[in-house]
Amino acid sequence: MNENQHSSTGGESRRNSFQSFSDAFDAAREDAGSKAREAAPKLKGALEGAAHELAYGVAFGACFAGYFAKEFVPESIKASLRRGAREGSGAAERANETPPTAAGFEGAAT
User: Fold this and answer.
1) Helix or strand or coil: residue 95?
2) How far apart are CA 81 and CA 78, in angstroms?
3) Which tens digits make up the pLDDT trace of 11-47?
4) Domain boundaries defined on the chain
């Protein structure tokens, strides 16, 4: 029977098993740290590249959509959008100037 197997004597065998278990964890911790230190620069480079590509894609998509709308949306729709934005902005300003009243809450559950 080797030292990793339990014997009928108990104490010594269990102590060896726990020591072996502890040694295994220590070795695994050291190996994981070493591999992480090796992989970190490669992973950092990959993440930097991915972040750049993502930022480029988002900026390209936003600009493309804006230019596409500017070039191909009919002027009548653009004018309607501008007028709606102007009127919405004015309504928001008027709403901010008027203090809220209890009358606005009529019918609310109490």
Assistant:
1) helix
2) 5
3) 566 566 667 888 888 889 999 999 989 989 989 999 9
4) 11-97
